[in-house]
Amino acid sequence: MSGKPSAIIFGGLNTCSRALAALLVPLDGEPLVSSLRIVDKYSVAPPTTYLGAEFPKILQNTNVEYRQANLTIPSAVSSCFDPSEGQEPYSYVFDLTGEILWSRPEQVQIEKTFNIARLLGLEAAKRQVKAYVRLQHPFYECKEKGKHDEKEDVKPDETLGIWWHETLRVLAAIPDLNLVIVRSAMVYGPYVDYGVVMGFIAVAAVYGYIKQPMKALWSPGKHPNHTVHVEDVAGSMWACAEWMSKTGRKEADSIAGEEILFKNDKNKAKVVEGMVDPGQKCVAPLFNIEDDSNCSMADLGNIITSFFGTTFEFYNLVVNTVAKFKLEDTVEDINESHVGYWTEMITKSEPKVTNTHYSAYMDIYHLKKHIVAFNAQKIKEIVGYKLRRPHINDETLKETIDKLKAEGSWPVLDQAS
User: Fold this and answer.
1) So which domain of life are we looking at (predicted)?
2) Partners of 335 in the beta sheet?
3) Beta-bridge mates of residue 39
4) Domain boundaries, the chain
5) Contact between 12 and 20 (Cβ < 8 Å)
C-alpha cells in the first residue's frame, strides 16, 4: 500500500484526459497516484483518435492501464470500477465523458453525455469513492458584464449545452456522491486539438504565412473570451479531488455548493430515464477554472496573431450584418480564403507533415459569437489552487506549437508558422 490514491479517468481522450494522465503519472517525476486506469470508447493500439506524442509513453507505465469500453452499458461501467488483482479499490474518479460535437442530434447527447455520466455517478456512489470530479466545458452563453462567478445564472448553449448542464443536475442529485464540478473556460495547450482557441491559432498561422491581417466577425470584439491552459484544467481537477477527499460532500456543499438551476424542457423529464424532477433543488460544489488573462475577443486575437507576425482586424459592418443573419452562407466564403493556404503550408513543411488532426477550417460553431467568462477566484480561495500557466502569451503559444512541430503534426516553415 503506497498511501497514494488510486484513480480512474473516464472519457476525454479527445479533450483533456491525456493532460490529466500526464499530471497523475508524469514521464519524469513521482506519480501522484498508486495506479491509474483510463477508460474510453477509442482504441489506442491502433489509435482511433489523436493521442499526441506523450500519451502513448504514459501508457507504457506499469501502473497505468487503458481499457476500451462502451460506457452506455451498465455492466461495462460496473466492471470498470473493479480493481485489478492485488490493487486497492479506486478512490478518485475523474469524469471527462460527454459528446463535444455540436452537430450530433439530441438523442446522441442524451445517451453519450447525460446517461453515461449518470451511470458513472451511480456506480461511484455505490463504491463510495472519496472524490468524483466532473469536467464541465464552457458550453454556455455568458453575459458580457458581471462578476462571472459560480453564482451567476448562465444559459446553456444549444442542445449540447442543455444536456451537459442537465448532467450536472443528475450528478448533484445522487445521494452520497462526493461530487465536485470543475467548469473551464476555453481550453488550449499542447496536443489539444478541439475547441475555439486551437482553431483560432491554426487560422492565425495561415495569415502569418501569407503576411496578411487576420479578420474576424463580431466587431468591436470587446466581449469576453477567457482562456485556460490544459495543464490548469488537469491541475484544478486533481486539486479538487484532494480537497473533496478530505472534506466530504456534506461539508463541501456548505462551503462551495451552488444550485444547479433547471434549464431544460420540462416535458423531457417525463420521457428521459433518470432525469431529476424540474422542481427539485440540486446543489453541488462548483468551481470555475480560467487563467488570469481576462481576454476579450480582440485581446485574444491580438495575442495570437502577434505571435505569428501578423495583425488582427474585423470585417466591416456589412459583412458582420450578413453573418449575423446568414452565418451558414458566410462560412464557406470565409474558409475558402485560408484552407487552401493551410494545405500549402502542410505540403511545404520540412520535415513533412505526414498526419495531422489540425485544420484551418472554421465550422459554424467556431464562427459564432462566443462569450465565455468564468471568474476563478473561488477555487483559489477555497481549494488553494495556484495557476500553472496564468496567462496566454508568446511563451505558452510557443511551447504549444513547438511540441506539435516536434511530433510532426504542425507545418515547419522558414517563417513564423
Assistant:
1) Eukaryota
2) none
3) 10, 67
4) 6-187+227-289, 192-225+294-370+392-407
5) yes
- Going by their DSSP bridges, the two strands 179-184 and 283-289 should be labelled as parallel
Q: Give the containing element (helix H, strand E) for 133.
A: strand 131-136
pLDDT (average), residues 189-207: 96
Beta-bridged to residue 259, according to DSSP, are: 283
Question: What does the pLDDT look like over 200-233, one tens digit per residue?
Answer: 999 999 999 999 999 888 889 999 999 999 999 9
Q: Give the integer Cα–Cα distance in Å for 176 and 414.
A: 57
* Omega prior to 213 cis, within 30 of 0: no
DSSP 322-335: HHHH-HHHHHHHHH
What's the length of the chain?
417
DSSP of 39-64: EESS-BTTBSS--TTTHHHHTTSTTE
Strand, coil or helix: what is 372?
strand
Which residue do the cell numbers 480537497 mark?
Answer: 243
What's the CA gap between 209 and 230, in Å, rounded? 26
* In the block, residue with C-alpha cell 505571435: 307
- Model confidence, pTM: 0.96
Residues 6+ apart with CB under 8 A from 319: 217, 330
Dihedral angle computed from the Cα positions of residues 202, 14, 405 and 214, in that order, rounded to the nearest 10 degrees = 10
Residue written as grid cell 447527447 = 109
The span from the CA of 316 to the CA of 306, in Å, is: 21
Q: 3 pLDDT band (50/70/90 cuts)?
A: confident
Q: Name the percent of the chain in helix, strand, coil, to the closest 5.
A: 40, 15, 45
In CATH, the number for domain 6-187+227-289 is: 3.40.50.720
Q: How far apart are CA 224 and CA 154, in angstroms?
A: 14
Nearest to 92, CA basis, from 175, 32, 179, 6 = 6
Segment holding 348, helix H or strand E: helix 339-348
Cα 303 to Cα 295: distance, rounded to the nearest angstrom? 9
Q: Could you tell me if 350 and 252 are in contact, meaning their C-beta atoms sit under 8 angstroms apart?
A: no
State the average pLDDT over residues 188-208.
96
DSSP lists the bridge partners of residue 364 as: none
